[in-house]
Amino acid sequence: MNLPDYLSGLKAPVADETDAVDLPVTGVLPADLTGRYFRNGPNPLPGRDPGHWFGGDGMLHGVRLRDGRAEWYRNRWVRTRKLEGARFVGPEGVDLTATPANTSVIRHAGRIMALVEVGLPYEMTPELDTVGPCDFGGRLTTAMTAHPKEDPVTGELHFFGYGFAPPYLTYHRLSATGELVESRGVDVPGPTMIHDFAVTERHVLWLDLPVVFDLELLGSGMPYRWDEAYGARLGVMPRGGGATRWYDIDPCYVFHVGNAYEDARGRIVLDAVRYARGGFAALWSGSGGSPDPAASAAASGGAYLHRWTLDPATGALNEEPLDDRNVEFPTFDETRLGRSSRFLYTVTDAAVVKYDARTGTSRVRDVGGVPGEAVYVPAPDASAEDDGRLLSIVTDRSGDGSELLVLDAADLEFVASVRLPRRVPMGFHGRWIED
């Protein structure tokens, strides 16, 4: 039996939950690296085919580090109503709790949440047990993006929800203490897949791009397709209120942004990983999405680091590629979110790449396997922007096993690795949750 790509190879799901203690460590784990590393990703229950990689039931993999030791590993399904068999769309409408919660994990105001962009967040315990769906006291009535942004100065959490019925896009803001204090609609022409966005000190940046909802594809994996006629644009919305200003850009898709900020001249700078139509088509059809024959025929390359610079004073926009390397999962020091930052980290299918925005140079570290997102963890009392470590789950190309790799963020040199008791399937986003 030939399994689809998203159920085989390095993406093949594991069949059960397991626990292990006193994990073997190579090198020396820094004693101050004390907390939990969690990584979320799709892992359908045995016998289930979600029709698309993005639709598999969420599973969290966790490693507990303390005082230079790797105390435990465990993996747990996020026990959503979808996992129990509930339908996302039923006779009573959309059930925002019947989703996979398979994309990312965050902690805000003491609450750990597993996220997916089409439904409500699911609260989890530090031991990866599922508490249940969270709607912030009944105030959240839309889905919640898997990529919220916590302002490092105010402590507020900015996020959004999108849907296939009006309102198509809604902005939300949680207080530093976890209360939903603001929700407002954002006018867009139609229902599109908005995976990420950006926040600066003064603005929220929207990516209104040509991957649109198609009702005819409902029930066949992910009901979205490329629509060249929709156009592509970036929106600049004042955080304090006011109209969104839109800037037309060359058609593309963006799954993940890096940082964004206002520069000394008041221009808005956004760095992100950009897919042209062909690169998107290759990823989308390979993950179980609707094929795009025209784009597939002309497909070239994949996803590349790109910069957009918007000038609110003149209305001018400039966009430029920053590299020709195929990369994904940009990360940076999130204590600088929305402010100017120098370093950005990405991964290829074999390496971690560090970009230096000041010098325009990059550094590459081959990791000897397939790396996941490299999460930046600042050192205590860090004296520089790259004074910290990178954490990434790296899987053998043979699929035999995985490790949690720790690199020095300054020079990408090896610090330590923790051998995990099982292979961790390819997934999406990780989070370091400090004690």
What does this entry show, briefly?
The protein has helices spanning 277-286, 293-297, and strands at residues 19-21, 25-27, 35-42, 58-66, 69-77, 89-90, 93-94, 104-108, 111-115, 122-124, 130-133, 149-150, 157-162, 169-174, 180-185, 198-199, 203-208, 211-213, 224-226, 233-238, 245-248, 253-262, 268-275, 303-311, 316-321, 328-331, 343-347, 351-356, 361-366, 370-371, 375-378, 388-395, 402-408, 414-419, 430-434. It is mainly beta. The radius of gyration is 20 Å and the shape is globular.
Model description:
The protein contains two helices and 35 strands. The protein is mainly β and 435 residues long. Strands 2, 30, 31, 32, 33 and 34 form a six-stranded antiparallel sheet that branches. Strands 1-5-4-3-35 form a five-stranded antiparallel sheet, with no helix packed on it. It has a four-stranded antiparallel sheet with strand order 8-9-10-11, with no helix packed on it. Residues 294-299 have low confidence and may be disordered.
Shape: globular
| Helicity level | under 10%
Q: Give the rounded overall mean pLDDT.
A: 95
DSSP strand tally: 35
Uncertain spans: 294-299
Topology:
Layout: E1 19-21, E2 25-27, E3 35-42, E4 58-66, E5 69-77, E6 89-90, E7 93-94, E8 104-108, E9 111-115, E10 122-124, E11 130-133, E12 149-150, E13 157-162, E14 169-174, E15 180-185, E16 198-199, E17 203-208, E18 211-213, E19 224-226, E20 233-238, E21 245-248, E22 253-262, E23 268-275, H1 277-286, H2 293-297, E24 303-311, E25 316-321, E26 328-331, E27 343-347, E28 351-356, E29 361-366, E30 370-371, E31 375-378, E32 388-395, E33 402-408, E34 414-419, E35 430-434
Antiparallel strand pairs: 1-5, 2-34, 3-4, 3-35, 4-5, 6-7, 8-9, 9-10, 10-11, 12-13, 13-14, 14-15, 16-17, 17-20, 18-19, 20-21, 22-23, 23-24, 24-25, 26-27, 27-28, 28-29, 30-32, 31-32, 32-33, 33-34
